User: Fold this.
Amino acid sequence: MLDDTHRIIAGSVLLSVIGIAYGGTFLLRVVRGHAPANPLQKSFFRAGHAHAGVLVILGLLVMVLVQSNDVAQPWATLSTGVLLAAIFVPAGFFLSVASKDPQQPNRLAP
Assistant:
């Protein structure tokens, strides 16, 4: 079904789910007040975490569907864009409120 390269990519992406799950424990600490964060940071952390989880699963699904249906180039290559979005979209949420006490998102905001 998947060639060797895509198996390695799928395995790496599945391992990243561990990082996303660990981020969920951090998010719980923030929401419960055990980690300092203002309301803007809380909402951006929550949005970044949710986007990461959804885009990783969507990226895996798109990769498997593209590989199993022998989609022609360049569309097959563009399917990796979903996996790249799983990195860059949540990073925008997290990095835009990375300062100590931001009152508004910085230029990295989506």
